[in-house]
Automatic annotation (TrEMBL):
Residues that hold glyoxylate according to the record: Y42, Y150, R186, H304, R307
Residues forming the catalytic site: H304 (proton acceptor)
Domain of life per record: Eukaryota
Keywords: Flavoprotein, FMN, Oxidoreductase
Classification via Pfam families: FMN_dh
Keyword Acetylation: no
Organism: Orbilia brochopaga
Record region (Disordered): 211-252
InterPro entries in the record: Aldolase_TIM, Alpha-hydoxy_acid_DH_FMN, FMN-dep_DH, FMN_HAD, FMN_hydac_DH_AS
Cofactor: FMN
Residue spans of biased composition, Polar residues class: 215-234
Designated name of the protein: Oxidase FUB9
GO molecular function, one term: FMN binding
Annotated FMN binding sites: 97-99, 126, 148, 177, 280, 302, 335-339, 358-359
Length: 396
């Protein structure tokens, strides 16, 4: 059985949203009633005691809007004022990167990219995706525009190879995640001893690659044999198919380089790619300034969904200070805890140029693959259209 209860990707049951599901909150409750425990624990796990995860949700409720009247809402334009990559996206929000979406649906990131294309919004692909970047680009088209990346330890050859593939596939920007020089303390993930299921693999790497979330391999000898690696990962040659485009990993668990820094690594990255370099994970105005000084083309204000540092500020609370520090020199985006179209409006009102959606995409994937993700995006659009029309700040 596949993660979402279907036999496989080809025979997946047709998506049908229950009549009682009218919002993303309803969809979340519906998913939790059927979601596999392992998937649920992976999706909801956060750092330490989960204070930041809770704050990411509660912070949106502390902001209320003051509507304007008689502003002519007959022809409302929802396109972003500063569109990412200067592309005419339909909406001021898109799908942010999250790893291993094959846990939610057999089609994984390919389904997400197809939904993004259908809805005219951008999709940022995680390096640790189950679908390869080439597969995602083939179905996502121009929506598959961003590739999220970490700078890994043990040399930069792996990063260079990924960058070359992204350029060849037609991606436009690389999103460097800067908030994870070391992994956050996630006790829930450790307790569950997370190992990627047998039917999945990391699409951008060879089948013996061990990702950073593989808890059973965290204390393993990095030079262990292939058979030991595949046993720890729950994979073998019969249950996975090697992708001819997959990057070689020499049977090692690749981790983020803890020595990453602005002065050395931003220039290095820009020297080795023609893609725009964005940074994700900024929460302090001084880091926003450092990112700009060192050539970042865009900033994503984020606390990694509460998975890295427990007790840190929410991205929404950090947003106004960063917007003031940036002064329009580069686009400022934000993610973290977005669950309603009203949340998108709030972020834009506080100065964000664009908003990225995370966990709700998984709910859509779980219930219906591409169609489920489209339902999530369409619901956010409907809610956003309503609040935008009722709070117009101009007469256009």
């Amino acid at each position: 059985m596949a993660a979402n209860g279907t036999q496989d990707g080809a025979s997946a049951t047709k998506f049908s949203i229950p009549r009682h599901v009218l919002s993303l909150k309803d969809l979340e409750a519906h998913c939790l009633a059927s979601m596999d425990v392992m998937v649920r624990d992976y999706l909801y796990d956060g750092a330490e005691e989960g204070r930041t995860i809770r704050e990411n949700l509660e912070v949106w409720d502390r902001w209320l809007v003051v509507p304007r009247m008689m502003r002519d809402t007959s022809n409302v334009d929802l396109t972003p004022v500063v569109p990412p990559l200067n592309h005419p996206w339909r909406l001021p929000f898109g799908i942010g990167p999250s790893a291993m979406q094959g846990l939610a649906h057999p089609a994984g990131e390919a389904a997400t990219a197809a939904a993004a294309k259908a809805c005219g919004v951008p999709f940022a692909l995680s390096t640790f995706s189950n679908s390869s970047m080439e597969e995602v680009k083939a179905v996502g088209g121009e929506s598959a525009a961003f590739l999220q990346m970490y700078l890994v330890s043990g040399g930069r050859e792996l990063n260079i190879e990924l960058l070359r593939r992204a350029e060849a596939a037609g991606y436009k920007a690389v999103v460097l995640t800067v908030d994870s020089p070391i992994p956050g303390n996630r006790p829930g993930l450790i307790k569950s001893n997370f190992v990627m299921p047998k039917n999945l693999r990391l699409g951008n790497f060879s089948q013996d690659f061990r990702g950073p979330l593989d808890q059973s391999a965290s204390n393993a000898n990095p030079d262990a044999s292939t058979s030991a690696d595949t046993a720890r990962n729950g994979t073998d040659s019969e249950s996975t198919n090697a992708n001819t485009n997959s990057t070689s990993s020499s049977n090692k668990q690749i981790l983020v380089d803890p020595s990453v820094n602005w002065e050395r690594d931003m220039p290095w990255l820009q020297e080795h790619t023609t893609l725009e370099v964005w940074v994700k994970g900024v929460l302090h105005p001084l880091d926003a300034e450092a990112a700009i000084v060192h050539g970042a083309r865009g900033i994503i204000v984020s606390n990694h969904g509460g998975r890295q540092l427990d007790g840190c500020i929410s991205a929404l609370d950090a947003l106004p200070g960063i917007v003031r520090a940036v002064r329009g020199r580069v686009p400022v985006h934000v993610d973290g805890g977005v669950r309603r179209g009203a949340d998108v409006f709030t972020a834009l009102a506080l100065g964000a140029d664009f908003v990225w959606i995370g966990r709700p995409v998984w709910w859509g994937l779980w219930v219906g693959g591409e169609e489920g993700v489209r339902w999530v995006l369409e619901t956010l659009e409907k809610e956003f259209r309503t609040i935008d029309a009722l709070t117009r700040r101009d007469s256009g």
